[in-house]
Amino acid sequence: MQLTGTFEERVDQAIAFARAHNTYKYDHEKISGIYRKAGVPYTKAAEKLFREWAGVFDGILFYNDNDEYWPTHRVDFYISFFSDAEDFTDYGIKYAAEPGDDEYDPAILVRNKFGADAVPVATGGYYYPGWIYSLPDGSLFSYHNDYDEDDGWHFDTFTDLLRMELGSPNPTRMEKIVENQDISGTLDECIEQEIAFFKTHGGYQNCRLLNSAGIAVDIPEDRDFTDDELSKFLHDYFRQPMPEMPGRQHRIWHVVK
Predict the structure, then answer these.
(1) Helix or strand holding residue 70 (H, E)
(2) Cα separation, 130 vs 125, whole angstroms
(3) DSSP code at position 2
(4) CA angle at 53 for the pair 30 and 156, rounded to the nearest 5°
(5) From its phi and psi, is residue 149 left (phi > 0), alpha (psi between -120 and 50) or beta?
């Protein structure tokens, strides 16, 4: 989807698109159980944030077509709530909530500023991801270990946080990954898997390829390929293996553009 208008208008469009294609279903017992297991309070403010925003930006990709220095134009941005978080429980939530020995430990700063009811809810942002906390009054705090030092960022709303994080990359378009599949094997095996994936996901016009070099490609939408022509196109695109990769490993995305 193209994003147009002022920066604020583009952020509003991005939120509307992401909400329209959000498939995440909030499960209170699951989320409260994750926090209970981690020994971290699950406050009313945190619950409200989860209900409104968890999953909204899952699978969302942003691009800036005016970026001359990165050929894919892909914006390095994500927001990930602690919602499917058995693997995050011991590291993410606990690390962000319990003060430790690390001089860059966000929990020390947050505990000193806001007290024990500042609840970690997500990680993410642009380029260097931050730790995102829900505060009792409904506002948010974000801390980036890599460059925030002692300050961090305080936001009245989640939309304000998005505007800060997306301000530098200033995206011009976005899309949503609906489903993806990792494929591997010989080149012929990869091609066979790709064509089968296209046929079950609405055709190649609705899919994007990512090769082992991390470069994404769209198949030209104005081409009407036969299976043989599509196979040749894919052979030409993927025929060079990456020297550091043992064989060929690629990914296919089913996207909403």
Answers:
(1) none
(2) 6
(3) B
(4) 125
(5) left
Indicate the pTM of the whole model.
0.80
C-alpha dist (Å) from residue 165 to 105, 148, 191: 21, 13, 38
pLDDT tens digit sequence for 52-81: 999 999 999 898 888 666 555 778 888 999
Residue 167 CA, distance from chain mean position: 16
Return contacts of 138-147, CB within 8 angstroms, 24+ apart.
Answer: 138/45, 138/48, 140/49, 141/110, 141/113, 141/114, 143/106, 143/109, 143/110, 145/104, 145/106
Over the range 121-150, which residues count as b (16 or more CB within 10 Å of their CB) and which as e? bbbbbbeebbbbbbbeeebbbbbbeeebee
| Nearest in space to 206 (alpha carbons), one of 218, 188, 216, 223 | 218
- Residue 183 contacts residue 252 (beta carbons within 8 Å): yes
pLDDT digits (tens, 9 = 90+) for 8-38: 999 999 999 999 999 899 999 999 988 888 8
**7-16, 203-212, 218-227, 241-250: range with lowest mean pLDDT:** 241-250
Report the C-alpha dihedral over residues 190, 196, 197, 201, rounded to 10 degrees. Answer: 160
DSSP string for residues in 196-216 = HHHHTTT-GGGEEEE-TTS-E
Six token digits for residue 179:
């489903």
Give the three-class secondary structure for 241: coil
Query: What is the three-class DSSP state of 140?
Result: strand
Task: Phi first, then psi: give them for residue 155, nearest 5 degrees.
Answer: -125, 145
CA–CA distances in Å: residue 83 to residues 28, 35, 37, 235: 10, 10, 13, 39
**CA-based nearest residue to 128, from 110, 112, 104, 109:** 104
